[in-house]
Structure formats: C-alpha cells, structure tokens
C-alpha cells in the first residue's frame, strides 16, 4: 500500500483513535502524518519515480539513550544489508520515521530513552503507524509482556550480538505482511 494511502487511512480513523483515548503525543503524530501526506500528494505524481529510486535502501533504526550501547548496536547492524540510523530519543526516531518510515525495516529500541516518550510508547506508535517495520524492544529492567506490543520481540539486556543480528536478518529477509 503506498504511503499516501496509509496516511489517508490513518486520517479516516483519527477521530476514532482520539475518542478511544490515544495519548495526545500520538494524536499529534497522526495529525502530522495526515498533513505531510496531503502535502506529499500534491507533488507526488511528478516525483514518484525519483522518490522510488531514493527509497531503495532498507533501514535499521537504533533508539538508545546510552551512546556506547547505541554505537555497539549501530556497529553490529552496519554489518548487515540494512542502512543504520541511531537516535537517543523516541522523538528523534519519530522524526526519522516521518521522513523515511517506508524504508525502515527494523526498529531496535530501549525502553528507557531521553525525551518525553519511552521505548514502549514508541513501539506502540510504530506498530500503529508503520506496521511493516520489525519491532525489537530491549531493557535492563523488568518489562511486563502486556506492556510490549504483540508485534514486538523483547530481548532483555544485556543482549547478545547474535540476537540482534538474527532480528536484523529477519527484518531484511522475511516478507512483511500486507497492509489492509
């Protein structure tokens, strides 16, 4: 499903999401996606072939507030076929997702992050707005399974390199479920 159709679909049930109690920061994100999709739709017809060429690379998004742990995860993922972008907060990750969400194959996020949102809130946003991205959540603390979206994999800290590489391989190679 093209990104503009995803935006239209989200816009069509935005009021329902708000009525059901979606947190305000996610409601703002839905509004931003809806606005960027309508802005994009105006110029999409002329630039679609160029945009498709630019979207060729699949990305791994590492969201970790500890610079050393983030650098380790980034270095490991750079050995895969995925491009790697690191962020220290959920807000920074959402900015990347808004700009390049269709390219993101893997989101690897710690529960505790810099900024207002935590990794679980980010995971819920990704599961809702970018359902084709593979979600991997990590934490050194205890996390109750009901708090982790059903679509996410949980890897406790300290994680092993092999665990992260296996998830990256799955994100890069396994076909994603169709949307809709």
TrEMBL record:
Alphabetized Gene3D superfamilies for the sequence: 3.40.50.2300
Provenance organism: Methylobacterium planeticum
Keyword match Phosphoprotein: yes
InterPro entries with a match to the protein in the record: Bact_response_regulator, CheY-like_superfamily, Sig_transdc_resp-reg_receiver
UniProt keywords, alphabetically: Phosphoprotein
Domain Response regulatory: start-end pairs: 59-172
4-aspartylphosphate modified-residue sites: 110
A GO biological-process term: phosphorelay signal transduction system
Protein name: Response regulator
Domain of life: Bacteria
SMART domains in UniProt: REC
């Amino acid at each position: 499903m093209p990104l503009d159709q995803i935006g239209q679909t989200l816009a069509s049930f935005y009021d329902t999401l708000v009525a059901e109690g979606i947190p305000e920061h996610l409601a703002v994100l839905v509004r931003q996606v809806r606005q960027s999709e309508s802005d994009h739709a105006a110029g999409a017809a002329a630039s679609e072939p160029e945009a498709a060429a630019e979207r060729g690379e699949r990305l791994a998004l590492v969201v970790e507030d500890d610079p050393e742990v983030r650098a380790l995860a980034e270095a490991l993922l750079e050995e895969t076929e995925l491009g790697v972008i690191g962020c220290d907060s959920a807000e920074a990750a959402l900015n990347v997702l808004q700009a390049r969400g269709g390219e993101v194959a893997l989101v690897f996020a710690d529960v505790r992050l810099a900024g207002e949102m935590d990794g679980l809130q980010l995971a819920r946003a990704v599961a809702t707005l970018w359902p084709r991205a593979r979600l991997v959540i990590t934490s050194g603390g205890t996390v109750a399974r009901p708090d982790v979206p059903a679509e996410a994999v949980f890897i406790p800290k300290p994680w092993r390199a092999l665990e992260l590489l296996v998830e990256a391989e799955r994100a890069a190679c396994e076909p994603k479920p169709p949307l809709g």
